[in-house]
Request: fold
Amino acid sequence: MDNNLKPVLKWAGGKRQLIKYIKNDYPQKFNNYFEPFIGGGSVFFDLQPKKKTYINDFNPEIINVYETIKNSPNELIQKLEKHNKNHSKEYYYTIRNLDRDEVAFSHIDNISKAARTIYLNRTCYNGLFRVNRKGYFNTPMGRYVNPLICDKDNIMNVSSYFNSSKINFSCGDFSKILLKAKEKDFVYLDPPYFPISETSSFTDYTKIGFTKDDQIRLLETCNLLNDKKVLFMQSNSDCDFIWELYQDYKIERVPVKRYINSKGNERTQLFELIIRNY
Reply:
């Protein structure tokens, strides 16, 4: 295991705080590994699976970042260094608004798009990847003095790991990739959380969002995994709806601090759920 690997993307709702709880519940043995909601990938980078791995997300910008790191790390670093040199409030909003011209944006090469995603992620408010209903990135710029826009060493380390491992990247619905899961495989699920209040929903990291019906569909998928004797672990919000959905499985309630609230003194400790079928 390479202890130098870190998540490339900051992620609102990321699992770095929960790793100390989650890692205690990793299966001792499993075959292939699946993570259909990769996001920032904190669990994936901590676990560093040794067998065949299936990484997926519904957001194509995220998967493009990982594929670019695997295939073109040096070119990506060059573009990030340019963003770092030019970073300012005006520059941030110029780069952010590139996707408003959909025709022009469609002709931007994948390496430039990946650099844009990392740049915005590293400089936007709290690393919150959020888009509106048109699919436009709309998070305002954060108030960082010296944001780490280009972590060269980590990008090269991650690229090396990707190229030395059996990792399959895909972009699509979570249920599709999980059709490949078989007995004794391990699936970690980190879906957009079910909101615990009207103001706590940060599920719009794609223009489609993740609805209550999607949460129910995810339960149905977990039931199918369980029937196939696939090991699964899921993180989700601590609310009556999720407790009721997963009442037939093992549920652990763990403390976490979330940093979405713009007023630091109002950022209180919350709880989240870790759900398992083993």
